[in-house]
Amino acid sequence: MILRPRYLEIFRTYRDVPLVKILAGIRRCGKSTILEMLAKELVSSGIAEDHIISMRYTSENFEDGMRSKEMYQGIKEKIKDDARYYLLLDEVQEIDGWEKAVNSLLEDANTDIYVTGSNSKLMSGEISTYLTGRYISIPVYTLSFAEYLEFKKGNKLSEKELLNEYIRLGGFPIVALGNFDERTSYQIVEGIYTSVITSDITKRHQVKNFDLFNRVVRYIVENVGKTFSANAIVKFLKSEGRALSVETVYNYLEWLEKAFVIYRCSRYDLQGKSVLKTQEKFYLADASLKYSIMGFNPKSIAAMLENLVYFELCRKGYEVYVGKNETKEVDFVAVQRDERIYVQVCRRLPEESDREVANLLEIKDHYPKYVVTLDELATGNVNGVKIMHLADFLLSESY
């Protein structure tokens, strides 16, 4: 098993804290393996194996459905004494009312509880009723570049070659662990995507016009890294002779978010210092999702570099926004407590100072400013703006 130490560090922070730890992310991003990592760490720290209860609740195992009462009783039967038990519960959203069972186990037994899930049922309204103030959400993403390098240890490719591979093939662990060619990799990712769309969206929400839903998804995929609104999607569909209400588009976007296929990045007005509700950007849970749906196109790399940088900032704990500075745009404003950084992303940086640097220089404050690029010859410093190669930015422990 290849470790993902960042998640182990988070577990150490919250271990034995009386909160339910909820790990949420797209299917096949590694949540189940992370729970296995936790189990091994618990054993190595001296916890008896019979005090670690691991349960996996897949729809295949519970086709007739399982209720919260059965879930509760099934786990309670395994608790034999008053010592602390560690509950590692995988894909709990398959259980109707899982929040009730988990809340009861938190109250009635000496437990430390970790759960995973990959769709909207995990984050349903019931969680607010039963677990308000009693849970911490831990987002799980596909592999970072640093993790990808760990998965590829022993590979003869150089770091530069592995970066190019990471950009093209993405960070799903199943792809990184194999030595698949590009076509096979995209077929695997397409299978993951189809599973998410079928199980977590179209069946659950009874989408009647799948072709129209799929066209909305393709629009979003085509416009990763661009600001747009639900109205813009409606107008685009109208130009193709298709009719769809703004409300339905909002529903589609919400369902895709709750299945962790897309992530919303709001705009931040640097002048008014407020979050704007219009013209947001959306990023894909993994760049390979775009290529599996539409094929790889070198012209799309610039937008997908933004995608990589967005998730690297999220992994490091930043709240990430698109920056609006009067008429200018900054790709990312990343905020963490009282600190922030500004980031522009570009594939190549011309020799002369271009808009990437100029837009950052117009922001008159002391916070760090970066331009992240694939241009190996452009690294350095321009009037206080640090220009970094993408690999260096992705592998930096802090900014």
Could you explain the architecture of this structure?
The chain is of the alpha/beta class and 399 residues long. Among the domains are: 5-139, 3-Layer(aba) Sandwich (Rossmann fold), CATH 3.40.50.300; 297-399, Trna Endonuclease, Chain: A, domain 1. It is built from 16 helices and 13 strands. It has helices at 5-14, 31-44, 68-76, 98-108, 126-131, 145-151, 159-169, 173-177, 182-202, 210-222, 230-239, 246-258, 287-294, 301-315, 355-361, 390-395; strands at residues 20-24, 52-56, 85-90, 111-117, 135-139, 262-269, 274-284, 319-325, 328-336, 339-346, 369-373, 380-382, 385-389. It has an 8-stranded mixed β-sheet with strand order 7-6-8-9-10-11-13-12, sandwiched between helices. Strands 2-3-4-1-5 form a 5-stranded parallel β-sheet, with helices on both faces. Helix 3 (68-76) runs parallel beside helix 4 and helix 11 crosses helix 12 (246-258). The longest helix is centred in the middle third of the chain and has 21 residues, at 182-202. It starts with a helix and ends with a helix. The model has no long low-confidence stretch (mean pLDDT 90).
